[in-house]
Amino acid sequence: KVASLALQPVIAPELVQGRVHLKCSYSPPSPEPPLQYRVLWSRLSGPGKREQLHHETTLQSFSHVEMDGANLRLGDTVFCTVTAFRRGTPEQQSLPEDSKGFYAGIKFLPESLEIAEDCKEHVLTVLSTVPIACPGQDDSCKITLQLSTEDLDSRVPGPPDIALSACQVDLLQEPCSGGRCAAATVTVTAVTDFVRDGNRGSRVGAEPVAPRDVLWRAHTPRDVKVTVRDLPTGNCYSFTDPHIITFDGWRYDNYKIGTFLLCRSASRLFEVHVRQWDCGGHRSATACNCGVAAQ
User: Fold this and answer.
1) H helices then E strands: how many in the chain?
2) Which residue segment(s) compose the domain that 288 sits in?
3) Residue 183: CB partners within 8 Å, gap ≥ 6?
4) Are residues 206 and 279 in the same domain?
5) How many C-beta atoms surround the C-beta of residue 34 within 10 A?
6) Cβ(96)–Cβ(83) below 8 Å
7) 133 and 70, same structural domain?
8) Does the predicted TM-score (pTM) go above 0.85?
9) At 62, which CATH number?
């Protein structure tokens, strides 16, 4: 009976006296005799490898460990492993049961994006899985993140293929629920660069700005990779006296003098006007482009 207990350990974050702790809770069987529990805390130190952090034996159905920034840091993926045994017979142990890995820190959702050069905005959520503590009474309970973008494709020099709606976001303290203890959103848009440069990769990064709490100072959240799918660009022309080629390849001439609407978008606020003047003199009625205005 001891060997097949369903303890189901689960890790959840909480504030204990203003400090960030992780709590491992498990379900003691009932109406079993009183049991003792051996709780082992560990973190992911590499692919498939764990490093032991702390262990204790307790009568309680939970165990705490503090995120002190030294032994346990933001950015760690943490596990708790629970084994039960009856008092007086520690050799009769249950099978050890693992919790799911708990990532403690800031992360982006979704963890990767694939977008296109179609002017659409895509929502990116940045959240903290642990509570935001207040270092002092006069401080607001928030973490300010500086956002950045970087081009990952060294073949095509130039600025990143993406644009953000904000350069900074604030993570404000709120009750922890559904894996988030603070969250903010930012929109990502692909830059329409009018260049056939293929699909390109960029990244979005975040870095805490001068936090007072030492726990956050060395934390660098995981980046988000954004793949921008290249779309063909339409072109139209008005040149010389003026010959006009439309987006769909239709060709005609416009020798008149005046201001004309060259193109207008039916889906967004965008249009181009062109002004033509007399450049043919007395010999021929010819107009040339002399000005352009774009909204």
Assistant:
1) 1, 24
2) 237-294
3) 125, 126, 127, 128, 171, 174
4) no
5) 8
6) yes
7) no
8) no
9) 2.60.40.10
CA angle 183, 185, 75 (to 5 degrees): 50
Distance of CA 127 to the CA centre of its chain: 8
Q: What does the alpha-carbon distance between residue 21 and residue 18 come to, in Å, rounded to a whole number? A: 9
Residue 240: which H helix or E strand, with range?
A: none
Q: Which residue has the higher pLDDT, 8 or 280?
A: 8
pLDDT in tens, 141-167: 888 999 999 988 766 666 778 999 999
Indicate if 223 and 120 belong to the same structural domain. yes
Pairing of strands 182-190, 19-25: unpaired
**Count of domains observed in the chain:** 3
| 100-144 pLDDT, tens digit each | 999 999 999 999 999 998 889 999 999 999 998 876 655 568 889
Distance of CA 164 to the CA centre of its chain: 11
What is the overall mean pLDDT for the chain?
A: 87
* Spatial CB neighbours of 279, under 8 Å, sequence gap ≥ 6: 241, 286, 287, 288
Domain end among 229, 255, 275? 229
Residue 151 bridge partners (DSSP): 202
235 band by pLDDT with thresholds 50, 70 and 90? confident
